[in-house]
Amino acid sequence: MKKKYLRIINICFFLLVTIVMSSFIDFKSKIIYIQPLGDVNSKYTDYLKTSVKEFYGYECVIKPKVSLTSDILANSKTRYEASKILNKYNSNQNNLIITEKDIAHKKSDEFPEWGIFGLGLRPGKTCVISTFRLKKKVSTQKMLERLKKVALHEIGHNLGLEHCKNNKECMMNDADGTIKQVDQEKIWFCKKCWSLIR
Ligand SMILES: [Zn+2]
Ligand SMILES: [Zn+2]
Fold it and tell me: In what order do the strands lie in the sheet with 114-116?
């Protein structure tokens, strides 16, 4: 009888250690899968891989591209619907989806297809970003800086962050489709935003 109890205690202890260890490992070795949607220049995916590692410390794995299909098109069929992309590719992995095509999201009845830079589940594991609205009339360097900010912002949403109203230079501000806001941000989270995820 005593032996049986000891065995149960042993098993419980083993389970507890496993749970504690796995949550520790999950935090330390979080992997983000960068998923190109359609043709995406490798200079963008390579740059994102480095940027995410530098800012969050997460490793990134660049996956082979998946095709742009008609099921993720917006009603006008002229651009893609970000929420359809999130629904389709959401999984147990952390996914950063990137496309060079224009993506949109319903803002209101007046603007059912509002062009956006990115959208992320909050909280969640999947976000999508588009290079389309970032590259007009700017140098590659400037465009890459914008891409980095948008990606780090959407991953911030995945981690549970809401839009920041604390500091205009914080990357968690609502860009609301205006690149001006993105351009005035620093590669930086304000203290309040950091405190919510660290
Ligand atoms: Zn946002
Ligand atoms: Zn903030």
Answer: 80-81, 103-105, 114-116
